[in-house]
Amino acid sequence: MGLLWVCLVIAVPLSVSYVNAVGITKEDMPHYRERVKSMFYHAYNSYLDNAFPYDELRPLTCDGHDTWGSFSLTLIDALDTLLVLGNKTEFQRVVQLLENTLDFNINVNASVFETNIRVVGGLLSAHLLSKKAGVEVDTGWPCTGPLLQMAEAAARKLLPAFHTPTGMPYGTVNLMYGVNPSETPVTCTAGIGTFILEFAALSRLTGDPVFENTARKALNELWKCRSDIGLVGNHIDVVSSKWVAQDAGIGAGVDSYFEYLVKGAILLQDEKLMAMFLEYNKVIQNYTKFDDWYLWVQMHKGTVSMPIFQSLDSYWPGLQSLIGDVDNAVKTFLNYYTVWKQFGGLPEFYSIPHSYTVDKREGYPLRPELIESAMYLYRATGDPILLELGRDAVESIEKICKVECGFASIKDLRDHRLDNRMESFFLAETVKYLYLLFDPDNFLHNDGSAFDTVTTPYGECVIDAGGYIFNTEAHPLDPAALHCCSQHRSERWEVEDLIQQFYSSRTGMNKLTTSKEKNVQTMKQKKEDQDISATFQKHRNKRSPAPLSCPAQSFTARLAIMGQVFLDNR
Q: Residue 422: helix, strand or coil by DSSP?
């Protein structure tokens, strides 16, 4: 990607022919790239024909329904994927459509978390990509523009949720009236710690610090709530700061909190965020890791509470690759891949001692996380086994999930029964990561050897130089663009210098000149700039990790069977 930091008997045996197929090579990439593109358009056109303007498509009944707020959500989530696939014409049409129809002043109770990652993130990403997509941008872009204004309007509707004694947000907010007085104060950990990417980007593009300050306050308060052994639980009361669910792990309810600490550190060059994650990583490895699986433990004692693998855990190898821990990432990825091979998808919950699904959690809703990790690890290692996962995903999804109107989620992986749902993340994440896995020359993989410049009210700045950071909905954010709208010009110069130095080292071109000498910086600003430059340089000079060579790690019988987990009354 060019990042700067960079079994038990199966009830219904798989009958998919690719399980024992030969390996895949780079020469096979164009074939699978075209198949992924066909998957996208089958799903996208089915949504437009049968579900728009509702949020999501119901593929079995060929109609639509509102899910997360009534935003035409699939259209927003799919917008940047259109550009990844090279469709500038449709990107431009959808931007115009959203400008004319999108309205957040509606009497709807919306998820604060989902609205942020899907709507705010999707609009921000589309805004930062709009010039590349051929949209006629305003004078002063990327510091202004209709998509940025829409993203800001959506984010402002979320701010009342953060008006709590702790600064940690409620889970739901009414977009017209604010937080309902009867709203529960219990929020999952990820619902508190998954705002820094979108909110900091908004603040740096608009000049309004309220968003970044709000996200940082929530992060800092959550950090204070760690247990004595350094772990966080799953759900917390945002008024009292008391933990309600005390299971600690890397999966559902917690996952994107850890993801945003790492990605926030990279996007913002923030050493404090990375230090937080590294501290968590130590205790996660110490208490939750067993034979390259990650389990759930009691947050105060570290004792195993749930020996299960969740499909949402699958983002973790990709995150490990971003901090350079590729060897461990590969071992864990290969464990997860064995589960995919067992069922033709990842069940929501998988009992590690039983090597089988967990009751009432047997479905696969077309999630992207394992494919996401394969994409990151392939960029890091180039090992073809990662392409094999991509191939298997394409074959599974097409064979099992494709219906007349799009792709349906799998209700039960044991018999491949389908569910009448196609979540918007299928087009935002699953298809995008598959395409990027098979498209090594995509612009999102830019290594800094190409870039563009744009003139803003603060002068000329670099954009589209690579190092894109994906939010947890796979919406890419351009880190260089965040410096275009800063009045601290020295920050922008540091980025320009690094890009120019890297470009010159690859092409032999002379470095472009800057006019630093014309401005006098304060000593404080000089120190900040030196820290940023040193951090960039340190990680830019890191050597590439060794190619993948580890076999899948078997899980030894060290855990007692803990019985049924996550029981409910459905």
A: strand
Q: Rounded CA gap, 341 and 18, in Å?
A: 10
Alpha-carbon distance of 166 to 221, in angstroms, equals 7
**Model pLDDT, residue 566:** 30
| Model pLDDT for residues 331-390, shown as the tens digit of each residue | 999 999 999 999 999 999 999 999 999 999 999 999 999 999 999 999 999 999 999 999
Rounded-to-integer distance, Cα 306 and Cα 314, Å: 17
178 DSSP 8-state letter: B
**What radius of gyration do the chain's Cα atoms show?**
23
Q: What is the pLDDT of residue 23?
A: 81
Contact criterion met (CB below 8 Å) for 233 and 283: no
Return d(Cα 450, Cα 445) in angstroms, integer.
Answer: 11
Give 159's strand partners. Answer: none
Q: How far apart are CA 324 and CA 81, in angstroms?
A: 27
Structure tokens, 166: 């702790």
Helices (H), 239-292: 255-268, 271-287
Pairwise CA distance, residues 454 & 461, whole Å? 6
User: Which sequence positions are flagged as catalytic?
Assistant: 114, 255, 348, 369
DSSP string, 352-415: TTTTEEPTT---B----HHHHHHHHHHHHH--THHHHHHHHHHHHIIIIIEETTEEPEEEETTT
Q: What is the pLDDT of residues 513-522, one digit of tens each?
A: 344 433 434 4
C-beta of residue 201 within 8 angstroms of C-beta of residue 482: yes
- Report pTM: 0.84
d(CA 509, CA 450): 12
Contact present, 142 and 493 (Cβ < 8 Å): no
Specify the pLDDT at position 72. Answer: 96
Tokens 């110490």 -> residue:
286
User: Using CA atoms, how far apart are residues 24 and 385, in angstroms rounded to an integer?
Assistant: 8
Using DSSP's 3-state secondary structure scheme, residue 290 falls into strand
